[in-house]
Amino acid sequence: MKRLQVWMPLLFSVVLIVGMFIGSALRQNVPGSRGIFNSGKRSVLQEVMDLVNLKYVDKVNTDTLTEDAIQAMLAHLDPHSVFIPASNVEEINEDLQGNFEGIGVEFFIIDDTVHVTNVLSDGPSDKAGLLVGDKFLKVGDSVVTGKSITGDKIKSFLRGVGGSKVQVTVLRNGKQVSTAITRGTIPLYSVDASYMIDTTTGYIHLNKFSGTTYEEFMKAMETLEAKGMKKLIFDLRGNGGGILTEATDIVDEFLDDERLIVYTQGNKSEKMEYHCKRPGLFEKGKLILLVDESSASASEVVAGALQDWDRATIIGRRTFGKGLVQEQYDLTDGSALRLTVARYYTPLGRNIQKPYNKGREAYNEELAERFENGELVNGDTVSKHTGPAFKTKKGRIVYGGGGITPDVFIPFDTATFSSNVYVLFDNQLFSKFIYIYYEQNKAYFDQFKTPADFARSFNDTRTAWNSLVAYASKNSVNVQNVPDRDKVEVEKRIKTWLARQIWRMEGYYEVSNADDAAITKAMDEMKK
Questions:
Q1: In 3D, which of 293, 189, 203 has the Cα closest to residue 240?
Q2: Distance CA 351, CA 309 (A)
Q3: What gap in Å lies between CA 397 and CA 401, rounded to an integer?
Q4: Lowest pLDDT segment from 77-91, 205-219, 406-420, 430-444
Q5: Which positions ≥6 away from 514 have C-beta within 8 Å?
Q6: Cα–Cα distance measured from residue 135 to residue 114, given in angstroms and rounded to the nearest whole number
Q7: Which residues make beta-bridge pairs with 83?
Q8: How far lies 78's CA from each of 35, 342, 363, in Å?
């Protein structure tokens, strides 16, 4: 339960912010003097705001009052209608666009120093000669060391308009190195990993549905087919959703003819159907879809369509249960409103939105309730379904309301850490250790040429554990005498996170999947 509590805020924020954007992803400008918000007279809310501004005894921040009023109003609607402050709009839109303008590095701040932990291959920093392990001293004329430096500050220094230059000075092997970096478009990849598990089985993990997702997916599929792929494990675990049309384009690659993929309809939105419109790249090969409780929105569109048409075996746990469609409207001050305008329905007519009539707090806690009532461990059952039942052409019973129930259940891993081990992950100590350990032993790790080679041959996790114990102790965290089960689990993570450090997410998944219950079950299902 502790593990679920630790990840719940991040999990729900991803589902709420990214997954809710299942609509057309069109950002429409709010009209000025006339339009959908102009009723011809001032609203009572505007009258009150004007009176407060003109007459109130003390000075007030009307922007804060306005935002609070909007939030209070939206609280009476569904949980996915949200106001986005102007300061957050750019970052959220970048994630959905699938790119941003910058220099292409990942970094950690360790001991008041910004360390380069990853350099995007063929990106601006790579072309300028930056290396993993470089330490930023200056960006332009600004010194970026010391206690005042933060992640947000360094991002603001490094990001800028594509094509503009930024001069940086780094410390490398005890020497100062200066170079100019030309900022460019940095991709935010949707496809985390795509590789061949065996000679005929491909694997793709997708983390979201952004503006570049379908293009990335097709490149991955074509590469895997060129390597002999006949069967596919498509992993949408943890995918909070995104742009609807990216999801329907992907489903189109799995279904033949002009089959219905999904349709949307609302009180003020006409019914809109999304059908297959082209010959698919993988209409016949065996297909398994992996989902879990954080697979939401557009992920559920994919799962619902493939399940309704008996096209894929769904493995995992019941999905989040978001069946609402949002559109985003830009507001005059740079903020935005994402408003639910319709519901979506699977080909059989299922709406899988879970109830939200008990308020947002209860809605936010629904995943924790699944753990409390044993569902995440023991599986969903017919008796727990309150939504209507539907039957596929092959006679399978599927349900509306509350997400997509998988065909094959995989229990949630209930292994919990002792409190000291949790501290390693709460404050990024573990992540920083992985980077430092890699840097200290880079010559050793260079012998592993591929993630598969690393998965087979790297087994010296006990030495790494001992180094972690020493590193944690220097940071006032004692993990010397934790239970053996904690050591075993942490050593597994050392291996997978080192793979991520070396090969990014591709390496992480390839190494992690070697010991993944859902992957093992999927491979068994492939043999049937």
A1: 293
A2: 16
A3: 14
A4: 406-420
A5: 455
A6: 6
A7: 337
A8: 24, 11, 10
Residue 340 phi/psi, 5-degree rounding, is -70, 125
Q: Which residue has the tokens 């995989």?
A: 410
* 9 vs 389: which has the higher pLDDT: 389
Q: Band of the pLDDT at 34, cuts 50, 70, 90?
A: very low
Report the half-sphere exposure of 341 (CA within 13 A, side-chain side): 19
Please tell me the pTM assigned to this model.
Answer: 0.87
Residue that the structure tokens 């250790």 belong to: 433
For residue 155, CA distances in Å to 108, 116, 159, 393, 413 come to: 12, 13, 6, 53, 35
Separation between Cα atoms, residue 147 and residue 112, nearest integer Å: 5
Q: Which residues contact 269 (CB under 8 A, 6 or more apart)?
A: 325, 341, 342
| Residue 386: band (very low, low, confident or very high) from pLDDT cuts 50, 70, 90 | low
Q: pLDDT > 70: what percent of the chain?
A: 91
DSSP code per residue over 41-82? S--HHHHHHHHHHHH-SS---HHHHHHHHHHHHHTTS-TT-E
Host H or E run for residue 390:
strand 389-391
Nearest-10 Cα torsion for 218, 527, 238, 79: 100
Give residue 290's identity as a one-letter amino acid code: L
| CA distances in angstroms from 29 to 24, 36, 84, listed in the order given | 15, 11, 14
